[in-house]
Amino acid sequence: MKLPSRRAFLKTAAVAGGAVAGLSATAKAGPKNVLSPDRKGVLVDTTVCIGCRTCEFACRTAHGLATPPLESYGDKSVFSAMRRPDTGALTVVNQYPNATKSELPYFVKVQCMHCDHPACVSACIVGAFSKQENGSVIWDTDRCIGCRYCMTACPFQIPSFEYNKAINPEIRKCDFCITRTRANALPACVETCPVEALTYGPREEVLRIAKQRLVTYPERYVNRIYGEYEAGGTGWMYLAGREFADLKFPKLGQNPAPGVSEAIQHGIFAYFVPPVALYAILGAIMWMTKNRKEGV
Amino acid sequence: MDDHMKATPMKTKFITPGVIVLILLALNGLVFLAGRFIFGIGSVTNLNDQYPWGLWIAVDVAAGVALAAGGFTTAALGHVMHQEQYHVVIRPALLTAMLGYTFVAIGVFVDIGRWYFIWHPLVMWNGSSALFEVGICVMIYVTVLYIEFLPVVTERFIGRVYLPGLLRQLNAPVDRLLRALDRGLSKTMFVFIIAGVVLSTLHQSSLGTLMVIAGAKMHPLWFTPILPLLFLLSAISVGLPMVIFESIIAARSFKLKPETEVLGRLGGMVAPILGVYLAFKLGDMFIRETFVYLAEFNTASVMWTIEVVVGIVIPLRMFLSRTVLKSPALLFVASTLVVLGVAVSRINNFIVAYQPPYALHPYLPSFGEISVTVGFISLLTLMYRACVMIFPVISVPEDRPALHSKYAIRTEKS
Ligand code: SF4
Ligand code: SF4
Ligand code: SF4
Fold first, then answer.
1. pTM of the full structure
2. What are phi and psi of A171, to 5 degrees?
C-alpha cells in the first residue's frame, strides 16, 4: 500500500475523524430508564401466602394467555417440582418446606422483580426494554430482534423466549400489568389475592410497611427485606420466615447488575475520545515508520 | 528476500476428496438450518430459558471473531508499523478475516429470533449495551474488510475484463471503472486500515464485556471485570498463530513450500504476546483468589486447565524454542494449540462459565446445532479455497510460471 502525501493524509484522516465525532452526537439516544420517586412496588409476604395460585390464573387471564379453569388450580401436585415463569405463565408459585411447622409450608410467588437498575434495560441491544415512570419494566415488540441478551443479563433469570416460533417469537415476562395500572386498576395478581399476601403501592411506602412488619413481628420473619438492596434495589420485595437462600432466591450483591458493564462501556466510549485517540496514535505510527523507511 | 514473492491465483483442481467431504458437511448443516427457519430455534437447538446462548454464539460468533483477528494483527504489523517483510501473509489473513466476519454475521443472523430485524441496531441505539457496540463495530468492520479486499479484486481484473456476449461492449468502461477505483483506493486505503485496527480493538474487547453484566451467573474462574482486556489480549495473541496455521495448511493443500522463514519470525512474536496474556490471566486469578476453585474437580476446573495449560502455557513454551521456530511441523502444532485454546476460551466464557441459578440440567449442544456450526466452518473453508483460486491472495516465488502480474498487464494495454 502506498501512503499519500502528508497534506492528503491529514485531510483524509480529519474527514474520517469528523465522521466518527458526528456519530457520537446521536449516541446518547438510549432506552428510557426513569427512576421516579413515585415508582410503584409490591411487597410479597411469603408467610401470608397460602399457595392458592389464583394469582397465576388472574395473570394469565389478564394477559390473554391460555389457562385451564380456575378450579384446577387447587391441584397441589404441581408443587412437587420447582417451576419457573415462562412464555405461558408470567408468574408461578413454588412451595418450600417449613422447618418448624411442617403443616404450614412456605409459598413463594415468582415474577419479574422490576429492578430499579434493570440489567435487561441496560443490556438490550436495541433498547426494547424500558423502565417506566410508574416502575414497570416493559418490553417493546416493535424493536426486539430476538437476540436473548436480556435473558443472559437478568440476574433473576426472568425473561422467557418463544423458542418454537419461527416468525416473531416474543420475549415474555411480567409487565406489572401496565395496561391495567395506567387505567388506575391494580395489577391482576394483587387484586385477586384472597389473603392480601401482596401489597401494592409506591415503593417507599411498601418498604415502610415491610420494615414495620419486621419490627412488629420479629419472630415471624428473618430480619431482612429481599429486594431492598439486592442488585441495586427492586420494585418487588419479599418478606420470609426462612433464609432467602433456602427459598431459592438468588444470592446477589447490592450493586446494580449493569454497573460494572456500563462503566466499562462508557469508559471505552467516553465521547469517542479513546477510539479517536487510538486512531490518531496508529496514524502517527504509520506516518513515522513510513518516513523512517524512506529516510534510509 | 520476499521481493520476488508475488500474490497469484492458485491453479489446481477445485474438487478433491477432502472438498467433497466439506460439501457434504455443508449440506448437512443447511438441512438443519432450514429446520431452524421453518420451525423456530427451539426445534433445532437445545437452548431454553435457562441457557439462552449456546454453541452458535460461543463458536460461530465469539470464536469466529477471535480467530479472524489475524486480519487486524497483520494489518497493524505490516501496514501500520511498515514491517514490509510480512506482506506475504497480509492477504491470506485479510481473506480469512473477511470470510470469517461474513460468517460471524451469518451466525448472528441465524441465532437471533427475528432475523428480519437484524438491521434494527443501526437505527435503534442503546449506548449502554455491550452487545450494541459489538454489533455496530462488527457491521462497520465487515464493510471495511470488504473495502480492504477490493484492491485484490481490481488487481485480478484490471486489463482482464472479458464479459461474454452482448456485455462485451462494457469491457472498456468496466475496466476504466476498476482503474479509477484502484487509484481512489490506494490514496485512501490507509484510513480504512487504521479504522480496521481501531474497530477490531473495540469489539474484540467488548465481546468480553458481554458477559460482565451476567456477573452473578458467571463461574468465578472466568468472571472478572477485566474480561474485556483478557478478550482483547487473547485475540491479539491468536492473530499470528492463526496466520501460521492457515499458511501451513494452504501450502500443503496447494503443494507449495511453506514460508518457514517468515512464519518463524511471526512465531517469534507470539511468545511475548502470549506471555502478557498469561500474566494478566494469572495475575487476575491471584488478585481475586479464584485458584481455590481449581481444587474442585468438575467441568469448570477441567475446562479452565485445558484453556490455560494446553492453549497458553504449552504453546508459549514451544514458541520460545528455536527448534520450533525453524520447523513447519512444530510451528503448526504450536499454532494449532493457540487456536484451539482461544476457541476453548470462548466456549468456556459463553457456555461453561454461564451457570444460571435455576438450571435444571446443564446445556449440551444438540446434533442440529453442531451440524450447523460444522456446516458453516466447511462452507467457509470451501469459499476460502475458491477465493484463493480466483484472486491473487497466496504468494508464490516470481520465477514460477505464475499468471501475468498487474503491471505487466497494464503496460500490455497501454
Ligand atoms: S428481574 Fe430481570 S427482567 Fe425483571 S427488571 Fe430485573 S433484570 Fe429486567
Ligand atoms: S431478545 Fe429482544 S428484548 Fe431481549 S435483548 Fe434481544 S432485542 Fe432486546
Ligand atoms: S393469590 Fe395470593 S395467596 Fe394465592 S398464591 Fe397468589 S400470592 Fe399466594
1. 0.89
2. -90, 130
Give tens-digit pLDDT for A39-82.
999 999 999 999 999 999 999 999 999 999 999 998 899 999 99
**Nearest in space to B201 (alpha carbons), one of B151, B134, B295, B104:** B134
Instruction: Please identify, by atom number, the ligand 3 atom nearest to the C-alpha of residue A50.
Output: 3
Closest by Cα among A167, A111, A162, A114 to A136: A114
Look at chain A and report how many structural domains it folds into: 2
Ligand 3 atom with minimal separation from the A53 CA: 5
Nearest bound ligand to the CA of residue A155: 1
Residues A102 and A248 in one domain: yes
Going by pLDDT thresholds of 50, 70 and 90, the confidence category of residue A30 is: low
A91 & A104 share domain = yes
Tell me which residue has cell 494446553. Answer: B310
Are both A38 and A101 inside the same structural domain?
yes
Task: Ligand 2: list residues with CB < 6 Å.
Answer: A 123-126, 128-129, 139, 144-150, 171
A161 interfaces chain B, CB cutoff of 8 Å: yes
Residue-wise pLDDT tens digits, B76-111 = 888 888 888 888 889 999 999 999 999 999 999 999
Q: Is A125 on the interface with B (CB under 8 A)?
A: yes
Across B46-83, b (16+ Cβ under 10 Å) vs e yields bbbbbbbbbbbbbbbbbbbbbbbbbbbbbbbbbbbbbb
Residues in chain A with CB shorter than 8 Å from the CB of B201 are 275, 278
| Any atom of ligand 3 within 6 Å of the Cβ of A48 | no
DSSP category for residue B351:
I
**Residue A172 pairs with which residues in a beta bridge?**
A160
Same domain, A207 and A289: no
Distance CA A174, CA A46 (A): 19
Domains assigned to chain B: 5-358+370-390 (1.20.1630.10)
Q: Quick one: which atom of ligand 3 is closest to the CA of A195? A: 3
Q: Is residue A264 part of a domain?
A: no
Considering the domain architecture, whether residues A97 and A171 belong to the same structural domain is answered as: yes
Q: pLDDT of A119-153, one tens digit each?
A: 999 999 999 999 999 999 999 999 999 999 999 99
ipTM value:
0.90
Question: Taking residues B39-47, what's their average pLDDT?
Answer: 96
Q: Which of A173, A174, A230, A255 to mutate to test the pocket of ligand 1 (most atoms within 8 A of CB)?
A: A173
Amino acid in position A233: G
